[in-house]
Amino acid sequence: MSSSRSLVASPPLGLPIAQMRSVFDTDEVERKLAKLQASGNEREHEGLRNTWQRMLERGSQRFAVKPSGLPDMAPLYELMPNFGDALDDVKRHVALSQDSRDSLEVTPMLLLGPPGVGKTHFARQLAELLGTSMNLVPMSSMTAGWLLSGSSSQWKGARPGKVFEALVDGQYANPVIVVDEIDKASADAQYDPLGALYSLLEHDTAQHFVDEFAEVAIDASQVIWVTTANDERAIPEPILNRMNVFEIQPPSPEAARKIAANLYRGIRGEHDWGQRFDPEVPADVLDVLGGLPPREMRRALVTAFGNARLDDRYRVEPEDLPRGGPGKGRIGFLQ
Questions:
Q1: 34-69 burial, b for 16+ CB within 10 Å, e for fewer?
Q2: Among 168, 222, 247, 308, whose Cα sits 20 to 30 Å from the Cα of 33?
Q3: Residue 104 parent element (H or E)
Q4: Which of 216, 213, 217, 211 minimizes the C-alpha distance to 153?
Q5: What is the 3-state secondary structure (H, E, C) of 28-67?
Q6: Which residues are registered as beta bridge partners of 110?
Q7: pLDDT tier at 191 (50, 70, 90 boundaries)?
Q8: Considering the entire predicted model, what is its pTM?
C-alpha cells in the first residue's frame, strides 16, 4: 500500500533527510466517498463524508524523516543521565538507517519508572532529535477502546482515533506517539483501550491499520512508539513482549544537580531577559533543586527567576525557589 520517494538527495549537514511516504490509498478513499454519495445517505454520515473529503484535500503524502548523520547525542546524555540505556537504543537504530535508503525504524519502547522522572520530556527530546512531531495520548483519563483506533461512524459523537489524527492531520509519516501511563488504562466490559496496540506495535500489521471511524487502511508502520508506565504488572504480557523495556530510575543527587544546571542554562538561553542573569546557577540553589523531581525543576526555576527580578536582582538565590510542602509553591509564572 505504501510508497516512498526521495525528497532530499544530499541534505546539508545537520538537516534531516526527508522522504515522502504515502500513508493511505487515495483511490480507496475516492471509491468510498463516491459510494456514499451514490447511496443518498450523505446527511446521515456527514462526519464520515467530511473526513474522507479532508483526506483527499490533504493528500496522502507525508514526510518520513531521519537524521542525515549520526547526531551528537552527548547533550541528551547530559540532560537526561538516567535515560542512558534508552538513548543507547535510539542511537543504534539511527546508526542502522545511515548510508541507506531504509527509513528509520525504532523498536517500540516502554519507559518504566516513578512519576516525575522525565519520561514525557524524554519523548519530546526524542522527537526533536529525529526532526519529527510528538503526539501525546494520556491513557489515565481515557477508558474508551476507540481512543487509538477510532469509533464506528454509526455511533453518535464518533470520531477518528489518535493514530489517524497524527498521520492524516499531521505532517509526518513517522511521528513519535507517546502512550502515557499505559498501566492506567482501564477496560470496561465492551472495549479494551489497549486492543489496537496489538497490531500497531507490529510492523507488518501496522502497515494496514484500519481506523474504525474512517474505515480506510492507514500505514502506521513508521510510527515511533514510546509508552510510559509506573507499574508493568498492569500491562498485558503480549504488549510487553512487543516493546523494549527500560527501567528509568530517579536521577542520583549528582545527576539531579546536572539536570538542574542544564535546565537553568536552557531557560536562560530561551529568553531575552535570561541574558541578564548569571551564566551559571549558584551551588546553593543547585543543592535545593537537586532534591526535586525533574518534572518540578523547570517550574521551580521559572518561579525563582521571577522572584529574583521582583527583588531587583539578576542572581537566583535559594529563597527565590518555591517553598516545599503540600499545596505550597504551586503558583508560579506561566511558561
A1: eebeeeeeeeebeebbebbeebeeeebbbbbbbbbe
A2: 222
A3: none
A4: 213
A5: HHHHHHHHHHHHCCCCCCHHHHHHHHHHHHHCCEEEEEEC
A6: 227, 245
A7: low
A8: 0.82
Tens-digit pLDDT profile for residues 125-157: 999 999 999 999 888 765 555 778 876 766 666
Neighbours of 326 (CB within 10 A): 6
Cβ proximity of 126 and 90 under 8 Å: yes
Strands (E) located in 157-219 = 176-180, 209-210, 217-218
- The yes-or-no verdict on residue 13 having pLDDT over 60 is no
CA gap 39, 190 in Å, rounded: 31
CA–CA separation, 116 and 121 (whole Å): 10
pLDDT in tens, 228-270: 999 999 899 999 999 999 999 988 888 899 889 988 998 999 9
Residues 267, 301 contacting (CB under 8 angstroms):
yes
Amino acid at 1: M
Phi-psi region of 163 (alpha: psi -120 to 50; beta: other; left: phi over 0): alpha
State how far the Cα of 180 lies from the Cα of 115, in Å rounded to an integer: 11
Phi-psi region of 199 (alpha: psi -120 to 50; beta: other; left: phi over 0): alpha
Which pLDDT score is estimated for 335?
Answer: 35
Strand partners, 5: 20
- Give residue for cell 498501566: 183
Task: Compute the distance between CA of residue 88 and CA of residue 86 in angstroms, rounded to an integer.
Answer: 5
